[in-house]
Amino acid sequence: METLRQQAYKIIKEKIVCLQIKPGERLFEADLAKNLKMGRTPVREAILMLENEKLVECNDKMGYIVRKLSREETYDFFALRMVIEDFAIPLIVKGLTNDIIAELERNIQMVKEYAEKNDFPNIIRYETEFHEILYRTTNSKVFIEVISGIVDKFQWLRAIALSAPGGVQQSLDEHIKILSAYKTGDISEVKRLTEQHIQDAKNKFISMEHIIF
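RE: above sequence
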């Protein structure tokens, strides 16, 4: 059973990753405790956990705020993702099954439906799930162990990129093309499309510099 601290941690983290609390915004301990219907102690402990993950930082004047990434950090995260995806693609092609293809197709359909409703939290959820399905398909315990430590940061960057004008539709269109290439087993084409997908996400991310830097 989850402790109150763990519950608070998960909820606040989701709010940050889904941009319900944006970079640079202050975390009001009392307000969070009231909204979560719990005491301030588990909320305070949750914030400290998020500080340890470098999603939150303590500002001398404002108290705890959601971190803003530097340009250098941003570029490093996208460069790292490029390397990770490049490593994973041959393993994914090898592990792909009809059931996984069907799961990815359902995922794309869910994004389409939530995009029509402008349901941003669920768009982020399913856009992230698309990549998580692919990562799982590598069938590599080492890869999963390595990626598990940074997927939340990737989701955070993805949410900011998706919030840019045209971000959701562009990403959705690219997921459709990537899945199509996976179906053919053309590794070089998957790599080309994935590299373009990451570069486009980086460009969208940078276009939102008014909230991230």
